[in-house]
Amino acid sequence: MVREFLGELISTYVMMVFGLGSVAHMVLGENKFGSYLGVNLGFGFGVTMGVHIAGGISGAHMNSAVTFASCVLGRMSWKKFPVYVLGQFLGSFLAAATIYCLFYTSINHFSKGHLTVTGPTATASIFATYLPSHMTLWLGFLNEVLLTGLLQLCLFAITDKQNNPALEGTQALVIGILVVVIGTSLGMNTGYAINPSRDLPPRFFTFIAGWGSEVFRRHHLPDLPWLQHPTGTEDYEGAQYA
User: DSSP per residue over the chain, as a string?
Assistant: First the structure.
């Protein structure tokens, strides 16, 4: 399982470096060097490269939700689940650290030395997804459940050899296009993380790197005032995968 662990680590790392880098261009370049479409393309083709790297080794899940579904449906052993998820989380965390180092001076220049989650110079959204003020946590949760389900359904369709799969050798490209389609059509509400391995490790990294505990804030929870954090985010910066 060492090869599978390394396959998940490296493929997730590559996918996340391309994806987070595209978000950094959009946020730090103030839409001059990047765009929402650029973010979708960065994550989509990052996924394509990840599939090419580890598709024949581990299946290149790069997504703990995909790994979980594969175990539930009996497509892989449960004993591999923690190995896959650990590889994905470590690869994602290292990718966040890489992007932070690459864009360190740009982040400091843009934020004027203040690492914040919200506001006009917020930079935490380079690394993780955050809800806009009009979305509740419950709506965000349901949104992610639906989008992750659509992702998984389409992945099964693309790879199902008994139905109408993608042509041999084109699966990686088609999966990348799938990610782009999800982002461009349904990504606005939550940033379409659709992947715990994509969102949680970079969020932990920002907590460690200086953004603080606000990266784990709870947002607009009706009837649960003890969990609310009235940050009042004005706008949503950054939409990312999967």
Answer: -HHHHHHHHHHHHHHHHHHHHHHHHHHHTTTSS--HHHHHHHHHHHHHHHHHHHTTTT-----HHHHHHHHHTTSS-GGGHHHHHHHHHHHHHHHHHHHHHHTHHHHHHHHTT---SSSTT--GGGTS----TT--HHHHHHHHHHHHHHHHHHHHHHH-TTS-PPPTT-HHHHHHHHHHHHHHHH-TTT-----HHHHHHHHHHHIIIII-GGGG-----TT-GGG-------S-------
